[in-house]
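At your convenience, could you comment on the folded chain following this short note?
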Amino acid sequence: MAGQEMPMLVVYDGMPAGQRWLVDQDSVTIGRGSDCDVVIPERQVSRYHARIERDQDGYVIYDLGSKNGTFVNGVQVGDKPRRLQDGDEIQIALCVKMGFVGADATLPLALSEPERGIEVDRAARRVFIGGEELAPALSLAQFRLLELLLDRAGEVVSREDVIAAVWPEEESFGISEQAIDALVRRLRERIASLDPDHSYIATVRGHGFRLDNR
């Protein structure tokens, strides 16, 4: 394929958002495995999840028996491969969406990406989701949790970190896991009231929580 324009995969929702891969081989494997051509390090993604192949008519995508499915424009690929067209949305499991940009297409600056992201005015304790203010205001505990997650966005925050940031006056043994989970759930619900299509706060089982502020 040397000397030819090649199609591209562009991630615009989920980890790793913004990353791009050229489809520069006759067969490109997508999955969690480190030996895949497109590596997506998410638990919901199977080790070998999907494969894109080039034939004489263009490109087709196969699901490799993944646990959580491969979708093109919202339709599950299943046992039958799906031919890809410029602008198609590929969803891997429930956590990553990417656009297929054809070889003869001009890469757009944004692939239908919604306005997204959390910003805070700490002094006034105001929160904005995608530029829209969250109202009514968060409770003090919810706001402290959000501050902690924002300060360490992309990192895993332990339950001990949450207790220290949200309940600094309390002894750690006095705060139950149920109380922490309930607080996280309420914060998720408040954020989802303005952006229900994106999961900002992920639970990392056995470790804590992580904010994906994209």
Remarks:
- The two ends are 34 Å apart (CA to CA).
- The chain has three helices and 17 strands.
